[in-house]
Amino acid sequence: MNSKILNELCSHCAFILNDAEKERMVADLKLILEYVDQVHSVSTDGIEPLVHPINIGYLRMLDEPETSGHENLTQSESIEKTDDFYVVPKVIEP
Amino acid sequence: MDPYQSLKQLRQLLESKQITAEELCRYFLDRIAQFDQKTNSFVSIEPENVLAEARRADKTIDQGINGQLTGIPVAHKDNFCVQGQQTSCCSKLLSTFIAPYDATIVKNISVEGGIYFGKTNMDEFAMGTSNQTSAWGPVRNPWDLSRVPGGSSGGSAAAVAAGFVPVATGSDTGGSIRQPASFCGVTGFKPTYGRLSRYGMIAFASSLDQAGTLTRTAQDASTMFQIMQGHDPRDATSESSRSNKRVSVKHPLTIGYSASLLNDLDSDIIARIEASRETLERLGNKFEDVEVFDQDLALSSYYIISCAEASSNLARFDGIRYGTRTKSPSSIQELYENTRSQGFGDEVKRRLLAGTYFLSNNSPENYVQKAQKLRRMVYELYQELFQKVDVVLAPSAPSTAFRLDEQLDSTDMYRQDRFTVPVNLCGLPAISIPCGLVNGLPIGMQFIGPQYGDELILDVAYRFQNETSWHLQRPRL
Q1: pLDDT-wise least confident of A60-64, B197-201, B207-211, B294-298
Q2: What is the pLDDT of residues B46-75, one digit of tens each?
Q3: Which of A64, A93, B153, B239 is the most buried (most CB within 10 A)?
Q4: pLDDT tens profile B154-172
Q5: Who wins on pLDDT, B221 or A69?
């Protein structure tokens, strides 16, 4: 872990950290990585990863278009909207 | 009026009209007004709404149409959506979010007449073990106000311990119900993954998150569980209504126990757990030594998986659809970056950055896949173990509540969860119950059951509480 990697991670996470925060975060992440790196000390050859604790099987849905009818509900908490659209800063300038 | 009465006792008081729901709610509201400034357990409460709901409950009681919780106050952890109420996950990022619908467990409680009493404080997005990462300030432990209540369901545990409500909901991703239950001297129940719907519970790590309860007794936990459980078509991981996997309740039990878990614990804590073991033997149970998975490896695996899942889940908080948005962003990128940087606290950022690292190409080996393989090893060990024993007895936390001003680094704080995370990795049910006081502070122990052995661990916890009085101890506020 170093400041270059942290900058890339911040870019992925959409975070902006100041210099003091970056210094502290690099130190914290180094500690965390030192601790979790022990997972590499154990052989796990031939073991299938377990992604979920219960067998939920494959979920199937009918391949039919549908509308939830909940547009008003889901947009009720929108920060800024016009008609049925969320308003954001312009992404493409004319 | 005794604020520490069981659900059954409260129900009898209400049904026999010795007290009205309005009087009961007024009593708890007054108690909160008097004492909660000391503990900071609640983050939102609307007394007028509570009393209006109580008056409706009284009319229902008069008509003789009683649900199991009619007139009884229930508080919800701030990561459960309650329609029309602030649901902030104790994060600045969601400080303006008003939930447009009820979580399924909230609805189930409401259908049985439970009165929504308010939202309890928690670690931001349920990431923490001390309730110090809340945007609304830390919760203080009712047993000693200079100490933490545990986390992340610290507000719920403190509220029940302080006698502010008889029951509160919580969520447990790696011990967030059981560790605060241990620190606050209450009963914390985390059911089998899938037995309670996750719909409307704001996600932290979806394959680990599980709703549950903080109550005074195992009997109350059982009552709440019966009300809250069941298949929910809106949660694809909720238990099928056709499930026939339930483990039958029986007595006496063969209880698995690993003395190695106690190795680095304080001698007074060991003494309390050993004494509890003797009580359980007196009740006819047998103990068998079992081997448990290396705690630090399981914990490492847990942190990799939970941070990776969180980095994906919390990507949705971008300032577009709900929550807060930074003021006057000049571009869409600035909107995302400023909203998230201003909205999330340090611990959430730390875990999201770590999770992104574990998922990214920068990591030297594939951390997530390695962690998932270790998860399989833990899972298989427990599968084998439950061929030999019915339940496992383990400490809930490595210490009593620590001081708010104690300086613990990230990994020290994470190691608080070392007894609890294997349960979440395997989707097992577990219940933490008080088993003693050490220097005036409560300490808990947990029964861990096989998947769908929820009723089994509730029963053994109930039998233990019938023989002991640790769950009846109260803090002085």
Answers
A1: A60-64
A2: 999 999 999 999 999 999 988 999 999 999
A3: B153
A4: 999 999 999 999 999 999 9
A5: B221
- DSSP bridge partners of B394: B446
Bridge partners, residue B131, by sequence:
none
Integer Cα distance of B200 and B82 in angstroms: 8
- Give the residue, B437 or B322, on which the prediction is more confident: B437
pLDDT for res B218: 98
Q: Which CATH architecture has domain B7-251+392-472?
A: Alpha-Beta Complex (3.90)
The SS3 call for residue B149 is coil
Q: Alpha-carbon distance B288 to B254, whole Å? A: 7
- 8 Å CB contact of B427 and A59: no
Query: How many CB atoms are located within 10 Å of the residue B135 CB?
Result: 20
Contact state of B372 with A51 under an 8 Å Cβ cutoff: yes
CB-based contacts of B335, cutoff 8 Å, min separation 6: A88, A89, B318, B319, B320, B325, B326, B329
Contact B428, B259 (CB under 8 A): no
Half-sphere exposure of B440 (CA within 13 A, CB side): 8
| Cα–Cα distance for residue pair B458/B449, rounded to 1 Å | 9
Provide the strand spans (E) within chain A.
81-82, 85-86
- In this prediction the pTM is 0.96
Asked if B206 and B310 touch (Cβ cutoff 8 Å), the reply is no
Whole-number mean pLDDT of chain A? 88
**B98 and A CB contact within 8 Å:** yes
Q: What share of chain B is helix, strand, coil (3-state, %, to 5)?
A: 45, 15, 45
Closest approach of B229 to chain A, Cα-based (Å): 16
ipTM given for this complex: 0.92
- Taking an 8 Å cut-off on Cβ atoms, the answer to whether B371 and A35 are in contact is no
Find the catalytic residue in B152, B153, B156, B238. Answer: B152
Q: Which amino acid, one-letter code, is at B459?
A: D
Domain locations in chain B as residue ranges: 7-251+392-472, 295-370
